[in-house]
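Q: Given only this backbone (197 positions), what sequence would you predict?
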């Protein structure tokens, strides 16, 4: 509801403002009131335009059916499921590769050739049991030993070659050992020369 000049004069006279000072005050109050009404009209127009735009967008979405959201959801869901499947396959391959590597080491494949042999083997073709070991590992070991026999390393551990073992009599140390020499020097310095019989 718009405020009129008569209403403003009445309010000012009730407030005790004299008629001489009222003219300028009435004009200022009316101008301020009109400015506030203009701002409210602009806000109302903006909200009306936003409501019309929202209504149009809603009508467009209704015309499209679900607005393509279902297709977008299905596409994103499929991508997520593919990602999960891919990650599960990578984890399964990693576990199989680890078990196969351990089996190749048991067979005795050279460490230098282990990665090369592993790349040529059908790692994904093996099945793992619930403990993470390869099922039918015995049969696979036999086939690996024959198939990769050129890469199987045999090691032989030998002891040290001692053609003349040292004298091991603690009661009588070797006369020429360094310990015997030091002991003899110490004895001479403390007790003098030992008499030989």
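A: Predicted residues:
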């Amino acid at each position: 509801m718009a405020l009129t000049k008569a209403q403003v004069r009445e309010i000012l006279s009730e407030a005790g403002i004299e008629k001489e000072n009222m003219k300028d005050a009435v004009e200022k109050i009316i101008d301020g009131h009109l400015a506030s009404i203009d701002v409210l009209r602009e806000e109302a127009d903006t909200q009306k335009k936003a409501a019309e735009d929202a209504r149009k967008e809603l009508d467009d979405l209704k015309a499209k059916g679900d607005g393509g959201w279902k297709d977008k959801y299905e596409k994103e869901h499929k991508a997520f499921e593919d990602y999960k499947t891919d990650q599960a396959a990578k984890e399964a391959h990693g576990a199989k590769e680890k078990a196969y590597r351990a089996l190749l080491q048991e067979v005795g494949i050279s460490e230098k050739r282990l990665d090369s042999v592993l790349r040529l083997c059908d790692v994904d073709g093996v099945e793992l049991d619930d403990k993470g070991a390869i099922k039918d590992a015995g049969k696979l070991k036999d086939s690996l030993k024959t198939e990769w026999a050129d890469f199987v390393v045999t090691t032989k551990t030998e002891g040290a070659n001692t053609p003349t073992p040292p004298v091991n009599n603690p009661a009588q140390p070797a006369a020429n050992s360094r310990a015997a020499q030091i002991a003899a020097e110490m004895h001479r310095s403390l007790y003098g020369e030992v008499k030989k019989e």
